[in-house]
Amino acid sequence: MATQNTSERAIVNCLECGAIVAAEAANDGSFVPIGTEDECTCGSSAFRKFR
Ligand SMILES: [Zn+2]
């Protein structure tokens, strides 16, 4: 079955406001915050891997 979850989880921080959030790696290599909308509370959707 194609139900296996291979998404990498990481701690990332927002490039705009610096907020640190838990995220999941998307197929295109970007990160999507977990438990929120697809973007930071500041409205940015650019994240950098924190660790
Ligand atoms: Zn932000």
Structure description:
It is a single chain. The protein is mostly beta strands and 51 residues long. It has one domain (9-49). It is 0% helix and 35% strand. The chain is built from no helices and four strands. It has a four-stranded antiparallel sheet with strand order 3-2-1-4, with no helix packed on it. The termini are far apart. 12% of the residues are buried. The mean pLDDT is 85. It binds zinc ion. Zinc ion binds at residues 14, 16-17, 19, 40, 42, 44.
Layout of secondary structure:
Blueprint: E1 9-14, E2 20-25, E3 31-33, E4 47-49
Antiparallel strand pairs: 1-2, 1-4, 2-3
Residues 14, 16-17, 19, 40, 42, 44 line the site of zinc ion (ZN).
Keywords:
globular; 51 residues; four-stranded antiparallel β-sheet; binds zinc ion; mainly beta; 0% helix
User: Can you count the beta strands?
Assistant: 4
Radius of gyration: 11 Å
End-to-end distance: 31 Å
What's the total helix number? 0
The portion of residues assigned to helices is under 10%
Bound molecules: zinc ion
Low-confidence stretches: none
Strand content: 35-45%
Principal-axis shape equals globular
Topology as H/E string?
A: EEEE
Structural class: mainly beta
* Main beta-sheet strand count, sense and barrel state: 4 strands, antiparallel
What value does the average pLDDT take?
Answer: 85
The overall number of domains is 1
Enumerate the strands of the largest sheet in spatial order, edge to edge or round the barrel.
3-2-1-4
